[in-house]
Amino acid sequence: MTTIARRTRDLTVSRAPFVHATVVRAQDPTSARPGDDAVILPDGTIEGFVGGMCAENSVRAAALDALRDGNALLLRVLPDGAPAFPDTPGARVVVNPCHSGGALEIFLRPVLPVPVLGLVGDTPISAAVATLAAFLDFEVATSGDHSGATVVVVAGLGKGEQDAIRAALDAGVGHIALVASRTRGAAVLDEMELSDAERARVRTPAGLEIGARSPQEIALSIMAEVVRALRVDGLASSPAQPAALPQQAVDPVCGMTVLVGPDTPHVRIDGTDHWFCCPGCLDRHVAA
User: Where does the XdhC Rossmann domain lie (predicted)?
Assistant: First the structure.
């Protein structure tokens, strides 16, 4: 197993988000070769090799965008003056201003931790929710420890509901589904004297209104509401979300977007900061 393969395995096990970047095509002259790969972390750190400094700037910016939207991307890094590629869905073209030239195609695959569903209760409904959630690639946790959970489903049907809701709220869970009738659910929450913000995080009756009757149908309505919260309402799939995108700047010489960091070539002229993709662009700007 390669160093990068071990690293991707360890990051996946630890539920840390990252992007796996693989060079799929390289045109001389370029220092990267097909099969070279790297992982890019949420802070912009690149571990591995997918090209020189200019390529790294483009890979870093594209990888962090991929972490934010969760979509895989084919990045084409072309030498300055190369013929334009036609627009391709799922592809991004950037110009490499470095003198080395060469072209690269790099596949960027974001790896995000699967959402965790905390489940409370030992009932036919909770069993059906567990089965469906696993089918939908959720990690199902029944330990009662809700830290790290995306959503908690309370399906005890009257047993330990308030303690479970309180624990989920204290753990910062954004979506708590209480399986109860509208009347009983409201009564349970009224007794807890929740703040408006806390109460807004508890859905009761749980699930979308689809006329569900059987435990399996009720589980379907609950998971449909959970998926909608994730895909439509913007519920965070994991507390370990990608960090905010670092500060970006546009290289005034070549027009490349660069991420500002301690090693980014930089100069201040007349009180204005300028950042560059490489020392060559900085030198040309200063000499102009």
Answer: 119-226
